[in-house]
Specification:
heterodimer; A: 318 residues; alpha+beta; Uridine Diphospho-n-acetylenolpyruvylglucosamine Reductase, domain 2; Uridine Diphospho-n-acetylenolpyruvylglucosamine Reductase, domain 3; 2 domains; 5-stranded antiparallel β-sheet; 19% strand; B: 221 residues; DNA polymerase, domain 1; 5-stranded mixed β-sheet; 2Fe-2S ferredoxin-type domain-containing protein (chain B); oxidoreductase activity, acting on the aldehyde or oxo group of donors (chain B); metal-binding (chain B); oxidoreductase (chain B); ubiquinone (chain B)
């Protein structure tokens, strides 16, 4: 690890001014991904600003029925929160399907949204990776790509986004509150991640001087919630394919998929097909897909997961 | 053996003394100390940042100045010689370094010591002593819940933290219903302990010990 200065911020404003003054400084909350990357010197910030003691660790129910989740709320606290378990079970389920008990106790909501890919070539500094070193190339193509993306990929990068939580947030239409010294903006999670781009090292719309302060959930949408995750071992592994699916009281359904793209993958325009023609839904949702010999199983697997969930839901309703 | 050395040295003392001797021998034959001291190479090391941190570890308060890069795991092992907590992968993948921070289990390798100012840390050394084992440690002996023992301290701390999570009603991936209280059966234990790997594969006996302890724990609550 490279040397760095460490300051515990007293407030979000304090944290923002420290990062504004120090180019290349980074916020830290849980550190479960950032410290891993710093050990490998993939990240080498000269200053870490700890935001875990800035009061952003609360889950608040607002008068209008929405829920505001502080950025440093841990994954385990969020999964266990009764408002989340009752009103947004797909979010609890997605969180509980991720990482291990120890990691969920430390990892935070904002950090989870910003975690980096687990592409092996991103982590191996001896290999080419446009995400780690822009312009160096992509060793993943033709390499080990079992975990990597099949849709929304580019010539520059085929990395997949590893979060389970974000897949559930995408199906719930969550919003992300970004604060800087000049103001606050709210970004729908739909617009937060860039997806396929010629600059895979730039993953989200967040600016260097901005901090995620809260994640806002709309009022509970009701219905039946599912989070199905298929992985190489029964627990404590990243998704090959996951699906956050909600069957709404009006008979419609919505779904976001994980493990298949550089962001949570949701195709709203095809969702009316979920309850009528799953083959056609999959065809549209994955049109333009570009898989490798190692990960081409992901598209039929996604279809299998969706079919299973639809049947499970039908049985439960019968 | 010289008379002032312990008559019955531990494995750790033995490893420490022999490895120090090995380094000393290496230096004297390959790098004469004068050559090292008068090296003309520029010092390319970047300046480290030092900070003071105060933590309570196993009920004992420690205040010390540390390099900001020190993980909680390295603080325990390298600064305080609390070597019961093990370094396995050092990347949060194996759970050997699991400790309890304010009662909550975390991976000590993925946390900076400076992030734990004024925190209460409990390690395996704070669970029991060789003469007075914690009931869960007794259970591990009784059920033969290890082979090499390297993952054991992490398994123990993780299990203590896991049981407290279950008592608080926190659900897991295999909990059938998110609303009704959790029943801590074997499937729950396996899922909740999945962050602790055992390369010897003593999982069955680890689960037996935890299941047995949880049963007794429930009766005493």
């Amino acid at each position: 690890m490279r040397p760095f200065n460490f300051i515990t911020a007293e407030s979000p404003q304090h944290a923002l001014s420290l990062v504004a003054e120090n180019k290349n400084a980074k916020f830290i909350a849980g550190g479960t991904n950032l410290l891993d990357l710093m050990k490998l010197e993939i990240e080498a910030p000269p200053l870490l600003v700890d935001i875990s003691k800035t009061g952003l660790d609360k889950i608040e129910k607002r008068e209008d029925g929405r829920i505001a989740i502080g950025t440093s709320v841990t994954n385990s606290a969020l999964a266990a929160d009764m408002n989340i378990r009752r009103g947004y079970p797909v979010l609890s389920r997605a969180l509980l399907a991720g990482a291990s008990g120890q990691l969920r106790n430390k990892a935070t909501t904002g950090g989870n949204l910003l975690q980096r890919t687990r592409c092996p070539y991103f982590y191996d500094t001896a290999q080419a990776c446009n995400k780690r070193l822009p312009g160096s190339g992509c060793s993943a193509k033709g390499g080990f790509s079992r975990l990597l993306a099949v849709i929304d990929v580019s010539d520059a990068c085929i990395a997949s986004f590893p979060s389970d939580m974000a897949v559930a947030l995408r199906v719930l239409d969550a919003e992300i509150e970004l604060c800087s010294l000049t103001g606050t903006r709210i970004i729908p999670i739909r617009d937060f991640y860039h997806g396929a781009t010629t600059q895979p090292h730039i993953e989200t719309v967040i600016r260097r001087d901005e901090l995620i302060t809260r994640i806002i959930l709309p009022r509970p949408i009701g219905g039946s919630h599912f989070y199905e995750k298929v992985r190489d071992r029964a627990s404590y592994a990243f998704a090959l394919v996951s699906a956050a699916m909600v069957f709404l009281p009006d008979g419609s359904a919505r779904v976001a998929l994980g493990g298949v793209a550089p962001k949570p993958w949701r195709v709203e325009s095809a969702e009316q097909l979920l309850t009528t023609d799953i083959d056609e839904y999959v065809r549209i949702a994955f049109s333009g897909a570009s898989s490798t010999h190692e990960n081409q199983f992901k598209i039929p697997l996604a279809k299998q997961i969706l079919t299973t969930l639809i049947n499970e839901h039908k049985e439960a309703m019968a | 053996m010289r008379s002032d050395q312990p008559a019955n040295p531990s494995r750790r003392d033995f490893v420490k003394s022999t490895s120090t001797a090995g380094i000393a021998a290496g230096v004297s034959t390959q790098f004469p100390s004068t050559a090292l001291a008068k090296s003309s190479l520029p010092d390319v090391r970047e300046k480290a940042f030092t900070q003071q941190v105060t933590l309570t570890i196993n009920s004992r308060k420690h205040t010390l100045g540390i390099d900001t890069r020190t993980t909680l795991l390295d603080l325990l092992r390298e600064k305080l010689a609390l070597t019961g907590t093990k370094k396995g992968c050092d990347h949060g993948q194996c759970g050997a370094c699991t400790v309890l921070v304010n009662g909550t289990r975390i991976n000590a390798c993925l946390s900076l010591a400076v992030m734990h100012d004024s925190d209460e840390i409990r390690t395996v050394e704070g669970l029991g002593t060789p003469d007075n084992l914690h009931a869960l440690q007794d259970g591990f002996v009784e059920h033969d819940s290890y082979q090499c023992g390297y993952c054991t301290s992490g398994q123990l701390c993780s299990a203590i933290g896991m049981l407290s999570e279950a008592r608080k009603g926190m659900p897991s991936h295999v909990t059938p219903d998110l609303i009704i209280p959790v029943t801590l059966n074997r499937d729950e234990i396996k899922e909740r302990m999945s962050g602790n790997l055992c390369r010897c594969g003593a999982y069955q006996n680890i689960c037996n010990a935890i299941e047995d302890y949880a049963e007794r724990d429930r009766e005493t609550v």
